[in-house]
TrEMBL record:
Name of the protein: Oxidoreductase
Family annotation (Pfam families): GFO_IDH_MocA (PF01408), GFO_IDH_MocA_C3 (PF22725)
Keywords noted in UniProt: Oxidoreductase
Molecular function per GO: nucleotide binding; oxidoreductase activity
Keyword Ribonucleoprotein: no
Lineage of source species: Bacteria, Pseudomonadati, Bacteroidota, Chitinophagia, Chitinophagales
InterPro entries to which the protein is assigned, alphabetical: Gfo/Idh/MocA-like_OxRdtase_N (IPR000683), Gfo/Idh/MocA_oxidrdct_glycsds (IPR050463), GFO_IDH_MocA-like_dom (IPR055170), NAD(P)-bd_dom_sf (IPR036291)
Length: 398
């Protein structure tokens, strides 16, 4: 059983608590810190937590606490992590790890110096659909991964601090792009270096200083390309979709908005439908089990299994740092309108990886470009001469 201090009793703190203490979980929240006493108390009552406080350190240092779960606004992550290092308590932190790579690097170095367990709570690489898709990718079902796109768009976040660039550290690129970048990175290979980023960003709708809509490309050293599409201006709910293209196959994932559960209601008795749903009448797209579909259950299972077995979880502060470094380059590119290098002062993956090559030999003389079966019953091959470079067509059946 893991004994947990929850820092933050808001939106994600409650989702995490539902997952941590849901089903027949043996893990327990033993202390809750929240800024306001009434929120801390309410959370303690709702989740049967024996200790509540409005002093963050009191929660971290509580003698019963073994692991601290940071569910605080972005600008408070670093201070909370450093306090865990001082108290020598294991720490798991929500996304994004830092407001930028500089903060994330300080957090990574601090936990490693303190020698404490650390996990990065990137739930969307733990969804059941993602895990299955990733297993297929690792088994080679898609061949070489050439392009991995991830999209997260919704009508905007639920608390004031997100909309303040100082506290949040950015707009939708940081808030949602962190998920998309880690999804792309995982499909492409976390040991493959992200080298440069091209990004468009704008503030199209909301009266804020940060961006509310962005599209970016992340180029990897092996030539693979990651793509993120993020928005706080999308209408219609929470759109979570991934597409992966490989030399041998394709995967399309729709994780939230169209999961195969469609419902119509006149609105009578209507209530909560799903995260960021904009309507509770008419045709609706509910989600069967949000905690599971969003990956929280599998994420915490990995975190606590790793902690108990003295291993690293799949997502660590190092991953959070790499994600922040990629997003820093995206912000630079959105301003400069150029490809910007990803600055990774700490890199633990492969170096000098060659570009992907997927040439298929037809025979000694030719490469195979394409095999085609036409609608008029003719089967043909398009071939390229290896020496001369000439492209020829060979008709197998007329
Ligand atoms: N899918 C996900 O992984 C996911 C989803 C939502 C939010 N998050 C992350 O979780 C963190 C918290 O987001 P949230 O949606 O729970 O926010 P929230 O506003 O709903 O809750 C914030 C909590 O922090 C506490 N707090 C302490 N000091 C504060 C301060 N100075 N200002 C505001 N709140 C303060 C509040 O009391 C509250 O309990 C953020 O880093 C966010 O990016 C992750």
């Amino acid at each position: 059983m893991a004994k947990i201090a929850m820092l933050g009793s808001g939106f994600i703190g409650r989702f995490y608590a539902d997952s941590l203490q849901g089903q027949r979980s043996r893990d327990k929240i033993v202390s809750i810190y929240s800024r306001r006493e009434e929120s801390a108390k309410k959370f303690a009552e709702d989740y049967k937590v024996p200790h509540f406080t409005t002093a963050m350190l009191e929660s971290i240092q509580h003698p019963d606490v073994e692991v601290v779960c940071i569910s605080l606004p972005n600008h408070l992550h670093e201070a909370a992590v450093l306090a865990c290092c001082d108290a020598k308590k294991a720490v798991i932190c929500t996304k994004p790890l830092g407001r930028n790579a500089e903060e994330a690097k300080r957090m990574l170095e601090a936990v490693e110096k303190a020698g404490i367990f650390h996990g990065y709570l990137e739930d969307l690489v733990y969804t059941p659909k993602f895990i299955k898709a990733w297993e297929s990718v690792r088994a080679g079902a898609l061949g070489k991964i050439l392009w991995a796109k991830s999209r997260e768009t919704h009508p905007g976040p639920h608390s004031d601090w997100f909309w303040d660039i100082e506290q949040a550290g950015g707009g939708c690129i940081l808030d949602l792009g962190c998920h998309c970048v880690e999804i792309g990175r995982t499909f492409i290979g976390k040991d493959i270096k992200p080298v440069e980023v091209m990004c468009w960003a704008d503030t199209q709708v909301k009266p804020i200083d940060a961006e509310d809509h962005a599209i970016g490309l992340v180029k990897y050293e092996n030539g693979a390309i990651g793509q993120f599409e993020v928005s706080w201006t999308f209408r219609g709910g929470l759109d979570l979709r991934d597409e992966v293209m490989g030399s041998e196959g394709t995967i399309w994932l729709n994780s939230f908005l169209r999961t195969g559960f469609d419902m119509f209601t006149s609105g009578k008795g209507a209530d909560y439908v799903a995260e960021k749903a904009e309507s509770n009448a008419g045709w609706l797209f509910p989600v069967g089990d949000e905690l599971n579909e969003l990956g929280y259950n599998h994420m915490f299972t990995d975190m606590f299994n790793a902690m108990e077995n003295d291993q690293l979880p799949r997502e660590t502060f190092y991953d959070g740092y790499v994600v922040n470094a990629i997003l820093d380059a995206a912000y630079k590119s959105a301003k400069s309108k150029l490809w910007e290098p990803v600055k990774l002062e700490i890199w633990r993956g492969k170096e000098g990886v060659e570009k992907l090559s997927s040439r298929t030999d037809y025979d000694d003389q030719y490469y195979l470009i394409k095999e085609e079966m036409t609608h008029y019953g003719s089967k043909k091959l398009i071939l390229k001469d290896k020496k001369t470079g000439q492209v020829v067509e060979k008709v197998l059946s007329e």
